[in-house]
Amino acid sequence: MISHSAGDAARFLTTADCAEILNVEVADVSALVETGELPAIKVGAQWRIEREVLESYIASLYEEQRRHALWEQSDYASLAELSGGTIIRPGD
């Protein structure tokens, strides 16, 4: 359970806090941090992730999913559509 002391505004989260929020294992969050996908700072031996950084990461995942869904739903343009109605073949 995430606990916050009064006044700290919960600016920083532990990897365990982030794992709870994302509903993943702590090792998954650690991997995101180690690859740089989820920016963090090391305080002593522990990684700390700013709440705003985690929110931004989540928003980027939503945007990635939205774009992927749009791509999957889009109709593929034909060559004629892409070329303004004219298809020029080699040798023409």
From TrEMBL:
Which stretches make up the Helix-turn-helix domain?
12-60
Q: Which InterPro entries match?
A: HTH_17 (IPR041657), SinI_DNA-bd (IPR010093)
Per its UniProt entry, which superkingdom is the organism in? Bacteria
Per UniProt, the keywords (alphabetical) are:
DNA-binding
> What Pfam families does the record point to?
HTH_17 (PF12728)
Q: Which GO terms describe its molecular function?
A: DNA binding
- UniProt KW DNA-binding keyword: yes
Protein's recorded name: DNA-binding protein
Q: Which organism is it from?
A: Gryllotalpicola protaetiae
